[in-house]
Amino acid sequence: MGKLVIATNASLDGVVEDPDGKEGSGLGAWFNAAAGSDIEHWAAIESEEAMASEALLLGRRTDAWFAARWLGRPGEWAERMNTMPKYVVSSTATPASWSNASIITGDVLGQVRRLKAQARGDVVVYASYQLACHLLDHDLVDELRLFVLPVVLGSGNRLLDGCAKTASLKLVSSQAYGDLTYVVYEVLTPAPTG
Predict the structure, then answer these.
(1) How far apart are CA 1 and CA 13, in angstroms?
(2) Distance between terminal CA atoms of the chain?
(3) Is the confidence at residue 190, as pLDDT, over 70?
């Protein structure tokens, strides 16, 4: 059985929306808070994660966002990102934007459970904050991997704002890379009570 991992970049206050400032949110290009050797460490970890992952699970908008930024890029990391199997959750059944993608509609939770059961490696959810909460609320997430950037935005869509359930986490690792912090949490399912 594979592990379902939510992996994303977030501001210190949890915002995951519009990291490059190209979506018109007014949040600016907050990901630019990472620079120099910080971004080199980020790229090394993200590339390693992609190489080791079995598949991506994305929301429709995230699929389009990533396709616009990865298709046509050179290099081993880009090749892996573009050829890796992708599963795109969409209520509209709109064709996926990115290569090697299948659309998931209907019984999303059942299909994700089957995907996890059949996977031998990590199935990674990038950025898709609405999907992330839906999966977390239904005890399908095994791990959270977050790059926290040194910026507070005050507004914007946050990774866990839409979650309806309590979730308990266990810190697996935490590492500072210059001004960035990379944290990995195991999701304890079900969440302990009391």
Answers:
(1) 33
(2) 30
(3) no
- Of 194, 91, 189, the closest CA to residue 144 belongs to 189
Task: For 76-126, write each residue's pLDDT tens digit.
Answer: 999 999 999 999 998 886 777 888 889 999 899 999 999 999 999 999 999
SS3 call for 113: helix
The whole-model pTM stands at 0.88
H runs (alpha helix) in the chain: 36-52, 60-70, 76-83, 108-118, 129-137
Confidence band, pLDDT 50/70/90 cuts, at residue 20 = low
Domain spanning 3-188, CATH class: alpha beta
Distances (CA, A) of 51 to 3, 55, 71, 84, 99: 15, 10, 17, 9, 16
Percent of the chain with pLDDT over 90: 51
* Total residue length of the chain: 194
Q: Token digits for 66?
A: 């990533």
∠121-123-124 over CA atoms, to 5°?
Answer: 130
The answer to whether the beta carbons of residues 139 and 189 sit under 8 Å apart is yes
Separation of alpha carbons 159 and 93, rounded Å: 24
Task: Tell me how far apart the alpha carbons of residues 131 and 104 are, in angstroms, rounded to a whole number.
Answer: 12
Instruction: Compute the average pLDDT of residues 61-70.
Output: 86
